[in-house]
Structures are given as C-alpha cells and as structure tokens.
C-alpha cells in the first residue's frame, strides 16, 4: 500500500464552544461519523482556554464556535495561522453572517447550528483529504524547497467558496484559454488573470518557460528533449531522434512535463545551474 493510499490515523479534534450542551451534541455527532474516524482529544469553553491547551498540545482539527465570551472564534482562528503546523478549522455556529470572514482566514468549512450529520461528515471528509495532502507533501521529494512567503496567498473562488492558496505551494501557472491553471502538489485551481501580470509580480522566484507557462524556479527538476502531452502528464521520454527541437522541464512533486520554448532553454539551464 502506498503512502498516498494508506489509511490515516483518526483526526485529533479540539472542541471549542462556550455551551457544554453544544459540545456534548458535537461529540455525539462525531461518534456517528463512520467515514472519517475522529478522536476528541480535548474541549475548551473559551478562546483563551483553547490557546492555553494548544500551547502544550497538538490537534488536527478545531471545531470552533464564533460568538463566545472574551475573544471570539474568529480571533482565535487568526492566531492559529501563526502556528508552525496549524490545525484545520471548521466553524460551528448559530450565526451565518460571519462565513466570509471565516473563509478569509482559511476555514475549511462553516457549519450552522443545528448541525446536520451529513454536513459534518462532509466537512470531516474534506479535512481528512487536506490532511492526506499535507502528509504527501512531507513524503514526496522532501529536498524541494519552494519560495517561502507564508504571508502571501492567492485568493481563488471555486464553486462559490473562497480558497486561499499559499504562494509557497504553487508549482506553476499555466494559461488555458481565458483562465490560468494554478498547480500545487495537491490540486489544480482555476484563476482569472494574465500570465504577464504574474510574471512581473513574481520576478526572481518564478521563471517564464513558455508563452503559456510560469514555473517556480525551485520546482524545476530537469530539462530534456521531450514531447509532453496536452495534459502535461508524466511518462517515459520517447527516442531523442523523434523529438526534433522540442524541450520540456519536469516539475517537482507532480512529475509533470511542461513545454519550454526554444528561446527560454538557456534561461532554464541557468536556473538549474543556480540551484545545484
């Protein structure tokens, strides 16, 4: 069984809600979620109590109320962003009006009370998938160091949800008709915008390899004669004599090949030399 398909351990969950009955109901619902195993490792009745617990312990997921005495759940979630390995956050609240703010601080879901079992299960499945992706990133090509600017994120709206993609996780941008594909090791996102604009913004960290592609310099693993498919899938190189003057780079973590225009070959070679 591969690392990508091996079952994950139960999600370690911290419940944060000032109402004991609300925490009790969440415990009961979590016990009914059979698709994603969870373990409630602690409860807190306030944001301050949660912070105290998190200073000494770790968890994978925080199920978090918004309105509580003292600091509210949104304030607590913002402080979690500073943790080296921050837990995922799912808000559980009776107040629907804070959803936009919640997703702006990278909440994985926003559940309104009374919580339905189906919605809670869906949120847990999403968190478990993110946890699996996080684990995969830690196991595949660990020597790859992408640009580290954790404060810079790309906000992307997908299916009505706001997704904040850390720039440090982006492997490449690729122009597709009127949109850009933003590729990370875990997913593909679709973004409106101009590749030229991103090239100017990311000069020094990303390399323009083709009129339709901008690649993180640290993610360029190999330059070779190649005939990549339209999807950029990985695969064995065809015979060199069948390639003509076609060049491509292999992108780290996803092992995809992207075409390189002839005039950019020298720049790609220089980037590879600089990384050795």
Task: Give the key terms.
single chain; 276 residues; alpha/beta; Rossmann fold; OB fold (Dihydrolipoamide Acetyltransferase, E2P); five-stranded parallel β-sheet; five-stranded antiparallel β-sheet; 7 helices; disordered N terminus
Structure in a nutshell:
Helices cover 28% and strands 30% of the residues. β8 and β9 (179-184) form a beta hairpin. Strands 2-1-3-4-5 form a 5-stranded parallel beta sheet. A 5-stranded antiparallel beta sheet has the order 10-9-8-12-11, with helices on both faces.
Under the CATH scheme, the architecture of the largest domain is: 3-Layer(aba) Sandwich
CATH-wise, what's the superfamily of the largest domain? Response regulator
Strand content range: 25-35%
Distance between the first and last residues' Cα: 33 Å
Number of H- or I-type helical stretches: 7
Q: Spatial order of the strands in the main sheet?
A: 2-1-3-4-5
Question: Structural class from helices and strands?
Answer: alpha/beta
Give the class-level CATH name of the largest domain.
Alpha Beta
User: What is the residue-mean pLDDT, rounded to a whole number?
Assistant: 82
**Helix and strand pattern:** EHEHEHEHEHEEEEEHEEEEEH
Shape: elongated
CATH topology of the largest domain: Rossmann fold
Q: Please estimate the helix content.
A: 25-40%
- What is the C-alpha radius of gyration, as a whole number of Å? 22 Å
Count of domain modules = 2
Low-confidence stretches: 1-5, 138-150, 227-244
The tally of strands reads 15
Profile the largest sheet: 5 strands, parallel
């Amino acid at each position: 069984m591969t690392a990508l398909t091996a079952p994950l351990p139960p999600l370690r969950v911290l419940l944060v809600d000032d109402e004991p009955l609300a925490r009790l109901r969440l415990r009961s619902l979590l016990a009914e979620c059979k698709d994603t195993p969870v373990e409630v490792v602690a409860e807190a009745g306030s944001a301050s109590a949660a912070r105290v617990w998190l200073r000494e312990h770790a968890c994978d997921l925080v199920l978090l109320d918004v309105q509580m005495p003292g600091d509210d759940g949104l304030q607590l979630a913002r402080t979690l962003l500073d943790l080296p390995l921050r837990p995922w956050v799912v808000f559980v609240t009776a107040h629907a009006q804070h959803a936009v703010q919640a997703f702006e601080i990278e909440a994985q879901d926003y559940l309104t009370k009374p919580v339905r079992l189906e919605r809670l299960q869906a949120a847990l499945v999403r968190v478990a998938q993110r946890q699996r992706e996080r684990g995969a990133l830690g196991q595949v090509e660990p020597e790859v160091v992408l640009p580290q600017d954790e404060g810079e994120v790309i906000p992307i709206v997908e299916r009505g949800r706001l997704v904040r993609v850390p720039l440090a996780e982006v492997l490449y941008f690729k122009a597709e008709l009127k949109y850009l594909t933003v590729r990370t090791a875990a997913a593909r996102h679709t973004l409106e915008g101009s590749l030229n604009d991103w090239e100017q913004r990311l000069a020094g960290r990303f390399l323009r390899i083709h009129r339709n592609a901008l690649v993180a310099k640290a993610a360029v693993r190999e330059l070779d004669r190649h005939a990549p498919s339209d999807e950029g899938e990985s695969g064995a190189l065809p015979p060199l004599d069948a390639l003509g003057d076609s060049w491509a780079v292999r992108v780290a973590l996803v092992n995809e090949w992207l075409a390189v225009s002839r005039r950019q070959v020298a720049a790609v070679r220089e980037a590879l030399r600089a990384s050795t």
